[in-house]
Amino acid sequence: QEDLFKNVVSHAKEYGFIFPSSEIYDGLSAVYDYAQNGAELKKNIREYWWKSMVQMHENIVGIDSAIFMHPTTWKASGHVDAFNDPLIDNKDSKKRYRADVLIEDYAEKINQKAQKEIEKARTRFGEAFNEQEFITTNTRVVEYLAKKKEILERMARSLETENLADVKALIEELEIADPETGSKNWTDVRQFNLMFGTKLGAEAATAMDLYLRPETAQGIFVNFLNVQKTGRMKIPFGIAQTGKAFRNEIVARQFIFRMREFEQMEMQFFVRPGEEMQYYEYWKETRLKWHLSLGLGRENYRFHDHEKLAHYANAASDIEFNFPFGFKELEGIHSRTDFDLKAHEQHSGKKLQYFDTEENRNYTPYVVETSVGLDRMFLAVFSNSLKEETLEDGSVRTVLKLPSVLAPTKAAVLPLVKKDGLPDVARAIIEDLKWDFNVAYDEKDAVGRRYRRQDALGTPFCITVDHQTLEDQTVTIRHRDTMAQDRVKISDLRGIINEEVSI
Ligand code: ATP
């Protein structure tokens, strides 16, 4: 798994998907640039999301609000006071951690130990093994799991009550209990606000302190009435947007999984108070279906329902994906109640209510939010698609089996040789296809090498022009995943590609 992750990072760089930011100056921690192929893949994911959320839903519209917002926005939303992560340093190793992540990592270790016991027993008992019975009766497993539950519950309580001394004590307790890690030398736990500050205005004395938005959602909330009125939207309805968000993450690692500048795709769905749970369930299911439609495998997704809720939520669940480093959050579905609209109403003094003509009354709508990281989607799709295949002749090919709808380039057109007029025919095919698809031209190296290059870029089709093409207007079309080749008419290419790459 570690190897796979290393391959993902190096493949992304070598094939022009992702570069470290300002690399000539040795990069900038947890900031990345999308390169020529990465930008296409990212754009295609964004469009795939936008189409399914906005274009396909009559009652959802999309906006594009500014990154800069009035500073009171972040006071109202709770971000100034509560958008903190608990920070702890290890004095020996000089490493910095998020205390909650550290505790979760330990809890995961306990879980893994329990899993090992279960697997051992499964091999021992074979067919007769009953996992459920084993989990509830085997004392070691019961102990491990009870410990995990207890730690997480105590952590949730301590974090909620901001009892940071207890959080530190929990970490120490766990380390003492686990002889492999041993006790270490920790600093106190302290809260660290994740928002980036900046200034608006030239004069230091009059300049206004601003924040770079840490989520796109607030741009939707403050525009709620503007959109509802001008779009004559009737509840239930949604407002969607994609855009950059910024967080000064304490521990930014795992490539584009956790970045300081990243992109979100969010949708706020406004509903009648009391009806939020039914829409929460609806969006959980609908968003999972969206992920599954990409064909990365049902087994790679799971829900994680939150026990500990953010200050604005009455229910929350993550869709987790099996990344190269294990199951981690990909998307959050949150029932945010009327917290945000009420808070903005209070802080702005402007009414943010909806008049329900069916019920003939005013109220503050409840909100169900779906929030997915575009960069995390990119990592999920990219890492899951990268395969090394051993072919019949024993050679190994690297192929990026991207969902065709997301592939940066849909087809590469390759003249078999650089003479006899074949490049001209290839160019003519491109001139025709480029109106509908991103297509590439490649004439360098032997055709086999060119196929491999396109495999590594995730291009679903290679179209080869040879001497027979000059006689009968047919070409060879090669399929990335099966490597099967068919002889087809040039005039049929558009239809064949379209069938494969359209949603
Ligand atoms: P995490 O627990 O991983 O920090 P979060 O619960 O803070 O994430 P949300 O505030 O719910 O995340 O944001 C919604 C989505 O935005 C997440 O599911 C994730 O896909 C994405 N996201 C959040 N923080 C980052 C980041 N630093 N880098 C990349 N994507 C992020």
UniProtKB/TrEMBL annotation:
Q: What class of enzyme is it?
A: ligase
Q: What is its main location?
A: cytoplasm
EC number(s) reported in the record: 6.1.1.14
CDD domains of this UniProt entry? GlyRS-like_core, GlyRS_anticodon
Q: Tell me which family the UniProt entry assigns to this protein.
A: Belongs to the class-II aminoacyl-tRNA synthetase family.
Please give the function described in this protein's UniProt entry.
Catalyzes the attachment of glycine to tRNA(Gly).
Protein name according to UniProt: Glycine--tRNA ligase
Gene source species:
Flavobacterium cerinum
